[in-house]
Amino acid sequence: MVKKKISTALSAALIVSMLATGLIVTIQGNTTLEVAKSAGDKKVEVVKA
């Protein structure tokens, strides 16, 4: 009984940590894309100038 509760708690913690990691990766991916876009825009501006 105790082992089952511990394994359930561990699996729940694992799922929560995986969701948190996915969220962090998504946020970082978006910021990276925005930085790349802004860098591309700056390059375009330089070429036009």
How would you describe this protein?
The longest helix is centred in the middle third of the chain and has 47 residues, at 2-48. This protein is mainly alpha-helical and 49 residues long. It is 96% helix and 0% strand. The protein has one helix at residues 2-48. The model has no long low-confidence stretch (mean pLDDT 78).
Question: Helix and strand layout, with pairings?
Answer:
Blueprint: H1 2-48
Radius of gyration from the alpha-carbon trace, in angstroms: 21 Å
Mean pLDDT: 78
* Order of SSEs: H
Assign an overall shape.
rod-shaped
Low-confidence stretches: none
Number of separate helices: 1
Biggest β-sheet strands, sense, barrel: none
Structural class: mainly alpha
Strand residues, percent: under 5%
> What distance lies between the first and last C-alpha atoms, to the nearest angstrom?
72 Å
What can be said about this structure in brief?
With 49 residues, this protein is an all-alpha fold.
Key words describing this protein structure:
single chain, 49 residues, mainly alpha, 96% helix
